[in-house]
Structure formats: structure tokens, C-alpha cells
Amino acid sequence: MNLEKGGRGAIERMVEAYGFKTRQALCDHLGVSKSTLATRYMRDSFPAEWVIQCALETKVSLNWLVSGVHAEEPTKVYSQNENLIIVDIFKITKSELTKVDKLTVDKKFVAEGEKISFAIESHDSLILLNQEWSVLVDGIWLINLDGEMTLRKIIKLPNKRVRVVNNDSEFECYADELNISAKAVATFIRG
């Protein structure tokens, strides 16, 4: 590993780890001038002290910050404030999830004990979802319906049956017939 080079990639990964949109925001956070960061970026000079600080504050893998190699792409990054979590935002495009951005969320917006795995943006709302659920309850769920990802309201019925509802239609089936991906833990409506 050559730590003389790799500054550009490391700086870009730090911007992503913190959830910033610009390198200027990274400068402000680190307390360094724009010209200092620009020099390291242009010369591809590795910013070891910044990378270590970023790893400690965000809990992102040091290996990923240094090399860009990660066992899995980081979808959840914790900020230096333990109440904030950075998650990916997806849109459902042509019945598939498409990553569009990142979102910083205060965990106080969801019930205690709930986790936030990612968010889905629709035309009028932003929905926070948890992939780590254990019990099917009434509510909004992300399901794979015949190969298409969709958000649907699910209502539990007797005998392990459920009613699956959207704006246009509804149907009933057994709960184990559904391919459920995640449950909605909070919905924010755009005003």
C-alpha cells in the first residue's frame, strides 16, 4: 500500500462517509482551508490524519477509507453524533430500487429499538424502512410482488392471512406467500 498517493480517492470517500455533498463541507468539518484540501487533492497526497479522524468519528472501515475496498458497500454510516445515522435513499423506478442520494436522520424520529436500514423517496413522501423485522404487523411494507418492488399496506387477518392494499386494488393471501423486504418505521409527508 502506497500512502504517498491515493489522496483524491480518500478525500472523496471521506465526503461520502460524513454524508457531505461537497469537499467544502469536509473542509469546514475538519477545520482546514479549502486551499489545503485542494492541494492534497490535486497532488493526490494521502491525508492520513484526516482519514484516521474520519474513521474514528464515523465508524466507517479504515480499510475502505484508505483503499476503497470494502466487503460490502457502506449503506449505513454513523456520524460523530450517535443519534444521527446516514442511510441511502432509493426510488422505485420501473419496479426496481434505484439509489438516488443519502440522508442524515435523527434516530429520535423512530420508535425506540427500531433500526433504519434505508429510505425510499416517492412523489409526496420519504419513508424510512427497517430490513431487520421479526413479526409481521399492520403497516406499510416493501414487498417483491411478482418480481416488482412495491410499497403496500398490509393488514393482518385471522388464520395467518393478510390483506395487501394499495390505492387501486387489494387482495388477500397467506402471509408466507409474500416476499417481504422491509417494513416502514416512519413516513414524512411533503407539505
The succession of helices and strands, N to C, reads HHHHHEEEEEEEEEE
CATH class identity of the largest domain: Mainly Beta
- What's the N-to-C terminus distance? 50 Å
CATH topology of the largest domain: Umud Fragment, subunit A
Number of helices: 5
Superfamily (CATH H level) name of the largest domain: Umud Fragment, subunit A
Q: What's the domain count? A: 2
The dominant shape is: elongated
The CATH architecture of the largest domain comes to Ribbon
Largest sheet: 10 strands, mixed
Q: What is the chains' assembly state?
A: single chain
SS-based class = alpha+beta
Beta content = 35-45%
Helix content: 10-25%
Q: Over the alpha carbons, how many angstroms does the gyration radius reach?
A: 20 Å
Average pLDDT for all residues:
86
Ranges where pLDDT stays below 50 over 5 or more residues in a row are 71-75
Count every beta strand, where a strand is a DSSP E run of 2 or more residues.
10
Protein architecture, described:
The chain is of the alpha+beta class. The chain folds into 2 domains: 7-71, Orthogonal Bundle (434 Repressor (Amino-terminal Domain)), CATH 1.10.260; 84-189, Umud Fragment, subunit A (Ribbon). Helices cover 25% and strands 38% of the residues. It has helices spanning 7-18, 23-30, 34-43, 48-58, 62-67, and strands at 76-78, 84-93, 96-106, 118-121, 125-130, 139-145, 148-157, 161-165, 170-174, 179-189. Strands 1, 2, 3, 4, 5, 6, 7, 8, 9 and 10 form a 10-stranded mixed beta sheet that branches. A hairpin with a 3-residue loop joins strand 4 and strand 5. Helix 1 (7-18) runs parallel beside helix 4 (48-58). The longest helix has 12 residues, at 7-18. Residues 9-68 form the Bacteriophage CI repressor N-terminal domain. GO terms for molecular function: DNA binding. Residues 90-185 form the Bacteriophage CI repressor C-terminal domain.
